Amino acid sequence: METPEISGEWQHIFNPNDTRSEIDTTWYTNDHSFAKGPDGKWHAYGIIGHKPINPWTGENKLFHISADSISQLTWEDHDYALKAKPGVERVLWAPHIYQEDDKSHMFYNIGNLQEKAPYYASWGQLCMAESDDMFNWKRHEFNPLFSDPGHARDSFVFKDNGIYYFYYTRTFNEVDTRSSVAVRTSPDLKHWSGPKIVHTQPYEADWAGDAESPFIVKRNGLYYLFVCRALTDYNETHVYWSKDPLNFPIENLVTSLPLHAPEVIKVNESEWYISNTGWDKKGLYLAKMKWK
Known about the structure:
Elements: E1 4-6, E2 11-14, E3 27-36, E4 42-50, H1 55-58, E5 61-67, E6 76-77, E7 82-83, E8 93-100, E9 103-109, E10 124-131, E11 138-139, E12 146-148, E13 153-160, E14 163-171, E15 178-186, E16 196-204, E17 212-219, E18 222-228, E19 237-242, E20 253-257, E21 264-268, E22 271-276, E23 284-291
């Protein structure tokens, strides 16, 4: 077993207020994803909003920034990657980018159109869009891919031994509101199995807020699950280990990191980064990370 550690100084790579100050000066970012594009540049996408914070009304666009290198101090701000389609998409939450065969796949959540959806364990709808250039995104014609209870959201997708795994946050079920991480599997990124709960926290909430932002790293035969304990402590992420990508026991705690909704970025075997963001920060931060 290895332990991820923050090993460098934090760099404030994106402050959304720099380009939006004429509108407001309380802009923030939240769940996000990094990927390297066909142009050789690094790209990041994520939730953007401003205070007063109301995710159900104020988080309906996805920011898009890019840089020539992962260590660039300030990233370039682009037009929004996606904007919510009125009457179809209530929100745009927590995108994740998975790349394969020169195509980028973005997985994200569009919420629930029912008026009282924010106030019970409503079914979140998980969707996909695709792009060849990382600037123009086309929504999958059969969105949503699937829906699950507990404001299902915070996608993470990776491929292992020929199988695609789609991890996300949800409640344990419709009436048991323990915060959980579920996974579905697929042979092709478009047709997904039923859900399996792979990790559960005891904290109960309609939006499963103590098991947010799941992220998986496979390293030397072991799997590491990063999960944000946002209700226990907004800026606390736990890391769990397992030999089985379908089961991360709560007893298998590796470490705790003082971060909200972090993403892990592997540049190569010896160069790793980790991010930090959230409602209490003006934008997105990166620092070097190492495995001990």
